[in-house]
Amino acid sequence: MTTTPLRIGTRGSPLALAQTRQLRALLAAALGLAEETLPIEVIRTTGDMIQDRPLSESGGKGLFTKELDVALIEGRIDLAVHSSKDLPTHLPPQIAIAGYLPREDVRDAWIGRNGATLDALPKGAVVGTASLRRGAQVKRLRPDVSIVLLRGNVETRLRKVESGEVDGTLLALAGLKRLGLERHATAILPIEDFLPAAGQGAIAVTKRAGDARVREALAAILDPSTAAALAAERAFLTVLDGSCRTPIAAYARLDGEAIAFHGMALRADGSQVYEAHRRGPAMDAALIGDDAANEILLRLPNGVAGLS
Questions:
Q1: 3-state DSSP call for residue 187?
Q2: Residues 6+ apart with CB under 8 A from 75
Q3: Is the torsion defined by CA of 153, 155, 156, 162 positive or negative?
Q4: CA gyration radius, the chain
Q5: Higher pLDDT pick, 254 / 304
Q6: Residues 264, 198: contact at Cβ < 8 Å?
Q7: pLDDT for 61-106, tens place per residue?
Q8: How far is it, in rounded angstroms, from Cα 14 to Cα 155?
Q9: Which alpha helices (H) appear in the chain, and where do they start and end?
Q10: What order do you get walking across the sheet with 258-266 strand by strand?
Q11: Is-contact 262 277, C-beta < 8 A?
Q12: For residue 204, which of 104, 285, 107, 97 has the smallest C-alpha distance?
């Protein structure tokens, strides 16, 4: 392998940097290098700059990846680190997903003001979230609460709960763990009630399509089981045109040689839920997710647009 250092691109949030340092440590160990020989390039994305409105009004998930994609294509970085749930369903043709690190806990955590649980919130309480999925799932269980936009990094959202700006919020447990902030979780929410976003808990790595050097360098640290699960989840999203504009959840897990899949699409107000379950060979992961999504499509009276 060439001695030219591999340059790692990332967003600049504390969580993005924690995830990138985790990958760099694993990669350096696998290659027998000092971590400092793998430089990290922080790239500010459009999604980081927009804080005053939902991403669905500004272009969706791609706002967190566009500038990193450009840096890859232009050769300014060699690989980029992402939260998998932030990856859009369609990537530029010059960009490929190299793979994923082993997946962390996929569950959502509830953070309530003064330790209050979701069940214990008074009628009319205010729950803050930037996720249509989380908002719809909260409304499904508590139609009496109000949902407001809550943007910002993890620490910012925790402060807004503590200050009383909102009565509670939901965050990915994996992110809290990576930041050492899981102590702030009032409750860990059951997957049955709060099915996660597709890709939640997994760190994804993208590279230039056809870049064999990066593919070979990453081979020892990427996890095939996580890749199979996310193949199903991303296929489900692709069929349903999953974006920040639609409340969609998906979770696949490996059980021996089989994959068990659960997908869900909701109305934004939580009043209707459409679910599909599948089980099949892990080698057919993408087909399983695709088939589950098509089942839901057939049951939607007005298509995906009717869920918003």
A1: strand
A2: 208
A3: positive
A4: 19
A5: 254
A6: no
A7: 567 788 999 999 999 999 999 999 989 999 999 999 999 999 999 9
A8: 9
A9: 14-31, 46-49, 66-73, 132-141, 154-162, 173-178, 212-218, 224-239, 285-299
A10: 248-255, 258-266, 273-281
A11: yes
A12: 97
Q: Are 195 and 222 in contact (CB under 8 A)?
A: no
Joined together, the tokens standing for residue 240 give 């349903």
Instruction: From the candidates 48, 69, 78, 86, give the one annotated as an active-site residue.
Output: 86
Active site residue 86: yes
The single-letter DSSP state of residue 284 is G
**What is residue 280's three-state secondary structure?**
strand
Quick: pLDDT tens for 115-127: 999 999 999 999 9
Could you tell me the end-to-end alpha-carbon distance of the chain, in angstroms, rounded to an integer? 49
Asked if residue 307 lies in contact with residue 265, where contact means CB atoms within 8 angstroms, the answer is yes
Transcribe 123-145 into DSSP letters.
Answer: TT-EEE-S-HHHHHHHHHH-TTS
Mean pLDDT of the chain: 92
pLDDT surpassing 90 at residue 107? yes
Q: How many CB atoms lie within 10 A of CB 128?
A: 23
Nearest C-alpha neighbor of 85 from the set 185, 226, 209, 267: 226
Residue with tokens 């969609």: 248
CB burial of residue 36 (10 Å; 0-12, 13-18, 19+): exposed
Amino acid, single-letter form, for residue 213: R
- The strand pair at 79-83 and 203-208 is best described as antiparallel
- pLDDT tens-digit profile of 125-168? 999 999 999 999 999 999 999 999 998 899 999 999 999 999 99
Q: How confident is the model at residue 1 (pLDDT cuts 50, 70, 90)?
A: very low
Phi-psi region at 199: left, alpha or beta (left = phi > 0; alpha = psi -120 to 50): left
